[in-house]
Amino acid sequence: MKVFLIGANGQIGQRLVGQFQQNGAHTVRAMVRKPEQKEALQASGTEAVIANLEGSPEEIAAAAKGCDAIVFTAGSGGSTGHDKTLLIDLDGAAKAIEAAEIAGIKRFIMISALQAHNRENWNESLKPYYAAKHYADKILEASGLTYTIIRPGGLLNETGTGLVSAAADVERGSISRDDVAAAVIASLDESNTENQAFDLTAGETPIAEALKNL
User: Fold this and answer.
1) Which of 39, 73, 92, 169 has a Cα at 20 to 30 A from 193?
2) What domains are there in the chain, each with its CATH number?
3) Within the chain, where are the H helices?
4) Beta-carbon-side half-sphere exposure of residue 128 (alpha carbons within 13 Å)
């Protein structure tokens, strides 16, 4: 399977690039915004293309042409304002979904946020971010694409353990970015994740088994 990775220069995205290279079961085309990012990826042996989530869905679709799946792990980041949260985490995700439809790509994996589906559990200081994730997820669920929505807990830079808890509703928890990336790749191979949305935190179950038992 050829995967179009949106957000390849982000912290989860970089881990995904590395794990795709190690895994070897799928190939990846990385979407980035800057020429120097493209050059760095190509130098490491990864196909890369320049496109922008603030551009048009058609631009993104053209960049994704020929791919079999889209993984959306882009985010505006904690240092930007609510305007970028709206433009990237919500509208950018909506454009990526439109792009998948234009390009005829049916498989779509979205990285969301723990408890994005439950308004009553949103962190007060991050409500705009959670709202963006909440509605991006809803757009994907209504799209007709074959989706997987992964809602990871607090993201850590610790080495992954390969052990997680995956369920429709996990109130709190954290997880390494390594394990989030591994869960994305495992989801591509596990049909049980199709048209599923779930919370993901560190746990005691191997990733493949946790996804199979959703």
Assistant:
1) 92
2) 2-212 (3.40.50.720)
3) 11-23, 35-43, 57-64, 82-84, 91-103, 127-141, 177-189, 207-212
4) 15
Nearest-angstrom CA–CA distance, 120 and 122 = 6
What single-letter amino acid sits at 196? Q
Query: If 0-12 CB within 10 Å is exposed, 13-18 middle and 19+ buried, where does residue 118 land?
Result: middle
CB 84 within 8 A of CB 16: no
In contact, 2 and 70? CB cutoff 8 Å: no
Active site residues: 129
DSSP letters, 14-35, are HHHHHHHHHH-SSEEEEEESSH
Instruction: Report d(CA 35, CA 207) in Å as an integer.
Output: 35
Q: For the segment 8-51, what is each residue's pLDDT rounded down to a tens digit?
A: 999 999 999 999 999 888 999 999 999 999 999 999 999 999 99
Distances (CA, A) of 18 to 24, 26, 46: 10, 12, 9
Chain centre distance of CA 111: 3
β-pairing verdict for 196-202 and 146-152: parallel
Identity of the residue numbered 37: Q
Residue entry with tokens 């993984």: 71
Read off the pLDDT of residues 148-194 as tens digits, 9 standing for 90 and up.
Answer: 999 999 999 999 999 999 999 988 899 999 999 999 999 999 999 99
